[in-house]
Amino acid sequence: MGHDLPNAENLRLRNFRRENPPREQKGLLQMAELVYRPVVGAARTMFKALDLKIETQGSENIPRTGGAVLVSNHISYLDFVFTGLTALPQKRLVRFMAKDSVFRHKVSGPLMRGMKHIPVDRKQGESAYAHALDSLRSGEIVGVFPEATISQSFTLKSFKSGAARLAQEAGVPLIPMALWGTQRIWTKGRPRNFRRSHIPVTMRVGEPLEAPTDQYAGAITRRLRERVQELLEAAQRAYPVRPRDASDTWWVPAHLGGTAPTPAEVREAN
């Protein structure tokens, strides 16, 4: 019967289902929020204790209702926490796609599962994709790092097309964003810096990018990466501090005069 409905009516029904998930799913999301919000509160308390200087622009670009794919660069183990903070002014919680090993950890595992984040087994990615798609269709925001792994050069790597394909299939927008400074707290190959170091973290959230189904996911991914690159450069320009001395240039990309490895050097080392 539904196939006989006009296109506009079909669209209205799809949007209604997307933003009005079944009662069982609503119950699971409400339970997740009981875990999620205290974790966010604990993170904020920790960041305040570390005297981090967090500055964000563009949170108003994150929709207050409905699904969306939030896409960020990836330079730190803590990026998912900071990326999630950008949605709080809009009263939204972000479900992140993360390596399944994080879910098996004795400490992080129960928290990640309780917050309904999405485990990704790179050998069996179909399950994670379907899970993320269901979340988007239920009106959730799903966080994706399309570089897949931390960029040790602190430059933008190539993007996987999964974020664009999710947005296309779910009929939701892509929200590009970039962060800078988180690599100074905890990144791959460097010791954690959980001292009271007054580290600034700068974040920029861009305007939504549509993902039409009549366009190739690769073309949308290229536009998405260009947007994230622009936002990354804006965050870098706005960053309020520079390295103290020659020993403190490790967190600055080589093309900006720092001593971080170049993308070619990272590829050779790996």
Blueprint (SSEs and pairs):
Blueprint: H1 7-19, H2 23-49, E1 53-57, E2 68-72, H3 79-85, E3 94-99, H4 100-104, H5 108-114, E4 118-120, H6 125-137, E5 141-144, H7 162-170, E6 174-180, E7 200-205, H8 217-238, H9 263-269
Parallel strand pairs: 1-7, 2-5, 2-6, 3-4, 3-5
Antiparallel strand pairs: 6-7
Q: What this model shows, in words?
A:
The chain is α/β, with parallel strands linked by helices and 270 residues long. Helix content is 41%, strand content 13%. It contains 9 helices and 7 strands. The protein has helices at residues 7-19, 23-49, 79-85, 100-104, 108-114, 125-137, 162-170, 217-238, 263-269; strands at residues 53-57, 68-72, 94-99, 118-120, 141-144, 174-180, 200-205. A 7-stranded mixed sheet has the order 1-7-6-2-5-3-4, sandwiched between helices. The protein is globular and about 50 Å long. The chain starts with 6 loop residues before the first helix and ends with a helix. The model is unreliable at 1-18 (pLDDT under 50).
Total helical elements: 9
Radius of gyration: 19 Å
End-to-end CA span? 55 Å
The main sheet comes to: 7 strands, mixed
What fraction of residues sit in β-strands? 5-15%
Shape: globular
Mean pLDDT: 87
Structural class: alpha/beta
Level of helix content? 40-55%
Major sheet: arrangement of strands: 1-7-6-2-5-3-4
Tell me how many strands there are: 7
Give unreliable regions as ranges.
Answer: 1-18
> Helix and strand succession?
HHEEHEHHEHEHEEHH
Pick out its properties.
single chain; 270 residues; alpha/beta; 7-stranded mixed sheet; 7 strands; globular; disordered N terminus
